[in-house]
Design brief:
Blueprint (H helix, E strand, L loop, with lengths): L6 H24 L6 H25 L2 H31 L7 H29 L3 H18 L11 H9 L12 E4 L2 E4 L2 H24 L5 H12 L2 H8 L9 H22 L20 H25 L4 H5 L23
Antiparallel strand pairs: 1-2
Helix pairs in contact: 2-3, 2-9, 3-7, 3-8, 3-10, 3-11, 4-7, 4-8, 5-10, 6-7, 10-11
Amino acid sequence: MEVALPLWFEITSFVALVLILAFDLLIVFKRPHIPSPKESALWVSFYVALALIFALLMLLIGDAEHAGQFLAGWLTEYSLSIDNLFVFVIIMGRFAVPRKYQQEVLMVGIILALVFRGVFILLGAGLIASFSAIFYLFGAFLLWTAFNQAFGKHDDEGGEDTWFIRFARRHLKVSTQYEGNKLRTTVAGRRMFTPLIIVFLALGTTDLLFALDSIPAIFGITQSPFIVFTANVFALMGLRQLYFLLGHLLDKLVYLKYGIAFILAFIGVKLVFHAMHENELPFINNGEHIEWAPDISTWTSLIVIIGSMAVATIASLIKLRMSGTSISEAIHADDDEADSETPAVDGAQEDPRA
């Protein structure tokens, strides 16, 4: 695809995004606190508005096709990031992270997600440039992921430690108590890690797995590395505030996983059609392009993505209301939790102070 966006716009965008992320990071570490629903809602609205303004700038500076690709990619990544957020909630609960330190933990998780997705974007762009048949593999992978998303044990995700976390538990000296936001502490004269190290490792492995899903998904919408990366950054912006805004409403959105699964399946089919249309594999149609394969437009993708998430969210809220639970009650389910507690973490080494 011919790039219609000028180089100065791409460079300026990267610089602006880095500055915004740095400012957000500075706020988190300078002022650790539990954001109120109003504060969280304002920040989420701010980041959503930024994404829409960015799409408008792409429309004015570039063209409608690039703006549409960004919107479709951003919404796809945003929906997958919300699914990622669901697992973050499970990890926070499983490792009993004190609520007032969850902002810092979430910010680390988001930075790790950006790093992993950046790496996969570079790898994906390289594979696409040198091996067009990769779209067959991307499509098949997304179809499998969609099936697993819809029919797998989604609610239990994060309930058991991965082999990597079990390995870390056995080989790292970890205390049983949190020490604020410190990674290292001294217990009876011995230097040990605090439980935060295990939390960060759990978030990192989760981010890695989600990057494997999200990058093929957005490459099914656009092959522009710039749009892929900016859509991912905007999708991750405000995710920390969204965590505190939605709270325990996330696990009440029971149909959300089906909406995400439908989006992944749709993009998977779109990737297979694209691969058929550009086919060069000698054992498929004698290496000739399959002309009858439909080319699904960006705007069709955008409508399907918005419609899928809207239907899944509305259906989930209707079911929640029919169960007799209000949205406010679901969001603030555990707000009574004592933030000053520093509970022991399951599986950590015994603390000599105990």
